[in-house]
Amino acid sequence: MTMINRNFLALCLVITMFSGIWSACQNRQKHILTANDTIAPELSVLNQKIMNDPNNPKNYIERSKWFTDHNRPDSALLDVRKAIGLDSLNPTGYIALSEVYQFTGKFPEAERALLKARAIAPDDNEAIVAHARFYLVFKNYDAAFKLADEAIKKTPLNPKAYFVAGIAYLERGDTLSGIKNLMNATAQDNQFFDAWVRLALIYQNKQDQLAEGYFKNALRIHPKSKAAWYLIGYFYQERGDYAKAVAAYDSVLRIDSHFRDAIYNKGYIAMVVDEDYDRAIDFFSQSLQVSPGWTNALYNRGYANELKGEIEEAREDYQNVLKLDPQNEMAIRAMDRTDR
Asked: Which residue segment(s) compose the domain that 322 sits in?
């Protein structure tokens, strides 16, 4: 029996965690999946706010976050420095500076900015929580717990601190405590997108129906989030609810027609569930247009051709997989299987 190379993604969701910095899988690709990943004329609005009130540091910090979210750290840094220049005694500017430095991998500079923020305002909740988040990056859970606890004691209504504690518990392997803290975060702020998504992923891993409701809560908050639509689609696909999965992937593609994984998964469903090999081949080809050389799509396009009886086309794709990944066991077996 042939093993099909299903697209078992690691469900690597980039969680913005209030600044676009924290990643659920801690990779450096910040813009594959984001919490509020719509493309809108937001920058024009931010520019106008600055024109209307050029001496307000908050406007520059707000625009700097937009620049960071859209992979323009140099512009973000200029705005943050402008904000600090306008009000050097406001910890918010140094927190924003730390976020830009974290985004660019300048972690010593990032912590120095946080320490400056805390020196200016030792009891500032945002500064304490930002420092706790910083320690999560380096898996310094004791320090993260200590600061999150300090923040909660000072400010009991503190969903961001509960979220940090929840993530720290999850990464330490204490799922129950992680869930408890994430639930506290959503109880205190039912618009907390990141917390709902994290809860959904936990329960999806448990194959628990509660995951669907948590994903829907995330979509209620950000109805145009590619991340949330993709993840709920994958949830439905794993459950075998393929019609809902395809509908969710279609929602992703209405937002971003080049979202390769949604295209790929539609191809997989067309091939394995519907046995519509022509449609599957088309979807896999579309995903390869977005990401040339993606071996998963190459292999499965080859397999769809094999199932269709187009052996020469199938072998061409298998050979291309092996050019890119000579040790690919599935492609090696496929070449042996189709050797006539």
From this structure: 260-340
